[in-house]
Design goal:
lipid metabolism; lipid degradation; AB_hydrolase_lipase; signal; globular; Lipase
Length: 393
Amino acid sequence: MDAVTFNLFIFCGIFCALIREACAYSPQAIAAAGYPVERHKTTTADGYILQIFRIPAGRRLARRSESTNTKGKRAVVLFHGLTGYSGNFIVMGPKDSLGYILADAGYDVWLANLRGTVYSAHHNLTRNDVAFWEFSFEEHGKYDAPAIIDKVLSVTGLSKVFYIGYSMGTTTFFTMMSQRPEYNKKLVAFIAMAPAVYMDNIRGLANFALSIDLFPILRQRGIEALAMSPEMLSYIVATFCNEQQPQADICTRLTYALVGEDYEQRRWNMITVFLTTLQPASFRQLEHFGKIGITGVFTSWEDGVRGRVKPYNLTNVRVPVTLLYGENDQLTEKSQVMRLAEDLKSTGVLEAASACPWPKFNHLDFIFAKDVGGLVSRPVAKLVDQLYSKYYE
């Protein structure tokens, strides 16, 4: 691991900030773009309260009644990645963002928020309680995704929904299926964008990061997630980010060192938007990904990062799976996606494994690429049409 990679790891840890409500804008942005929007809440079995945002119709139907717009419509649920939230699927606007394009294509779109985002709370715990942050994507799969899916089915009256995940949103799917295989019956199909299951490529970074014992030291002080005031975050972005000169921009260079370099697909303010809307990552989330990287196994949390290795059961997946990856993605590398593809192919559920057409396509491009509409969103919407027609009963 070189010095640039180490500095980037520290940089990303610092920016896993606890962003306030003012920085998270999903419902306001959806309404401002001319789409109908609804807020829904669901409570997990372990007491977390999660908000889900619904776009029940495209802009052309925004003035019509809700019953006309949603009756019999096919539903799609979108799950965000690590440090992400529902706003990731609308941030690039109606012409490019997947949430809007699916709504305009006639789908009933639901944008999930997993525990830890500003759109989550707990019945008995506050965000200042250490216990609030004692979760990883294991709990996302065991509790959050099932609660969200059940809420969508309850509101819509449908028997099945379509699941689309990005990065950790894909990890959530596979952990859910391993622990809750009954949810196969509630899904039409699954599209995994930048699937984060096998991560041998981060083994060196994970070993080093976990060896310095930073997280145990912070835990001794009662801290389970890195937090930063909006004022401090704004100061750091203003100091280190130079959008007008991307080649000299420290924020861009450090980010691309982690996710893969792609200056051609960089929209001028992309990095600032990405950084200022980051959601907190619990230490356990980071440690759990580290455990997968260190062991080379898609393993459950069990006794902690150095504890027992217990592989998640991928043979429990029974719905059709399509994998989408970037040729230049340095976080979820192509070789690791292909390893997952072989596992799914062996059980007969792999629909396809395809690379995005731009050769420099990196991890963040699935959300923030300048041409994300043509490279990802519209092709994914067409793929949803095809899979719904093929598999929906």
